[in-house]
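Supplementary notes for students who missed Thursday's class. We covered one full example, reproduced here. Read the sequence, then the structure, then the short commentary at the end.
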Amino acid sequence: MQKRFETSTPEATQEIAQTLGMNMPRGTILALHGPLGAGKTCFVKGLASAQEISHPITSPTFTIINEYQGRMPLYHIDLYRLSGPDEALALGLEDYLFGDGITAIEWPDRAGDLLPVESTIHVELIQPDDATDERCILVTIPDELAMMECV
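Structure (token representation):
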């Protein structure tokens, strides 16, 4: 199932993520696709709000993994600096993929085939149009999660 959202402000992007994150089950993985500056970390801020996390959300580009505690844990992972799946495995990515919280991964293509198909939601953030400042967010939900109506 695919859902399409239009947004023109960071606050609207966060609201979309917050709404999606309200009923996500433990173990949900979000693969966040989009170029630098597309709003991936902004989207994670909305997920954090849904989990009642008050700690400031920052990009984990240099730390690679940020962990936040809320209603359920939120793991924010940025694989931008990794060269591929072997480095992701060495980092311990599998521990987060089968963890007890929500895992949001920026630059998921660097993980190769490590992300489980049945529990990974793909979120594509398309850069805003310079003329209108509107961006498109495409959310692709696997059939198993869509049937549970949790997203």
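Commentary. Residues 11 and 45 are 10 Å apart (CA to CA). The chain has a mean pLDDT of 89. If anything here is unclear, bring it to office hours.
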